[in-house]
Amino acid sequence: MIKENLKTVHENIRKACERAGRDESEVTLVCVSKTKPESDILEAYELGERVFGENHVQEIVAKTDDIKKPDISFHMIGHLQTNKVRQVAGRVSLIHSVDSYKLAAEISKEAVKKGLEIPILLEINIAGEESKYGITPDELADITEKIAALPGIKIEGLMTVAPITENPEDNRSYFRKMKQLSVDIEAKNIDNVSMNVLSMGMTGDYEVAIEEGATHVRIGTGIFGERNYT
Ligand SMILES: *Cc1c(COP(=O)(O)O)cnc(C)c1O
């Protein structure tokens, strides 16, 4: 099943890139393997996948301890508590979910302690949803400048979790706003900030996200099937 699903997902990514006049190589597939067994990750790896997204610190620790492939990377995509930063630092190659200065400061502290430079994305609550983590678009410019001044971290771009919707077209305007935010921040030429990454789009809406400029799509269900949380 994973094999067929991956084939479909890559085909959809290719077509979305074609519609948008983009090169397929501009889009990184982050296979969201949270709650899924290591055997699923290894199966996807054997099929050529190299980037996996997880959102629980304990799972990241266990999976990175067990799976030793020199070219595999794990990304932290879920909400990260400051007291858990120590455990993920050095285990993930990108943290997508930096949603406050306080969290960035903690990552910075840990990076300096470990002699690392940790790449991060700033998570934006693009639809202003009460239930969601994330920096508001209004706060973004100030917070970016403050975080950029911290040692040991590098801002690589922006991330959002768009609203859950039946119709992916409903999220097009949010994806477009995200792209515009990243263009606006890029234009400020802040030291230590690049806007090379735009992480948006999940199983339900990744094709629209790609049409609007996503560089990283985070797909779980569409590859590994429904998650069982019980
Ligand atoms: C779980 C999760 C995903 C993947 O969601 P699917 O709908 O299963 O593709 C993507 N991004 C984040 C932040 C997630 O927590």
Describe this structure in words.
41% of the residues lie in helices and 19% in strands. It has an eight-stranded parallel sheet. The protein has helices at 2-20, 38-46, 57-66, 85-88, 101-114, 137-148, 172-187, 206-211, 221-224; strands at residues 28-32, 51-54, 73-76, 94-98, 118-124, 153-160, 193-199, 216-219. The radius of gyration is 17 Å and the shape is globular. The mean pLDDT is 97. It has 230 residues and is an alpha/beta fold. It contains nine helices and eight strands. 41% of the residues are buried. Helix 5 (101-114) links the parallel strand 4 and strand 5. The protein binds pyridoxal-5'-phosphate (PLP). Pyridoxal-5'-phosphate binds at residues 32, 34, 55, 77-78, 161, 202-204, 218-222.
Write the layout of secondary structure elements.
Layout lengths: L1 H19 L7 E5 L5 H9 L4 E4 L2 H10 L6 E4 L8 H4 L5 E5 L2 H14 L3 E7 L12 H12 L4 E8 L11 H16 L5 E7 L6 H6 L4 E4 L1 H4 L6
Parallel strand pairs: 1-2, 1-8, 2-3, 3-4, 4-5, 5-6, 6-7
The structure holds pyridoxal-5'-phosphate.
Pyridoxal-5'-phosphate binds next to strand 8 and helix 9.
Q: Which tags fit this structure?
A:
alpha/beta, 8-stranded parallel beta sheet, 9 helices, 8 strands, 19% strand, binds pyridoxal-5'-phosphate
Instruction: Output the strand order for the largest sheet.
Output: 7-6-5-4-3-2-1-8
Please give the count of helices: 9
Work out the strand percent: 15-25%
Structural class: alpha/beta
Small molecules held by this entry: pyridoxal-5'-phosphate
Q: What is the overall pLDDT average? A: 97
Shape: globular
Q: Which residue ranges are poorly predicted, with pLDDT under 50 across at least 5 consecutive positions?
A: none
What would you report as the Rg, rounded to the nearest angstrom? Answer: 17 Å
Q: Number of DSSP strands?
A: 8
End-to-end Cα distance? 22 Å
Order of helices and strands: HEHEHEHEHEHEHEHEH
Describe the main β-sheet briefly. 8 strands, parallel
Helix content: 40-55%
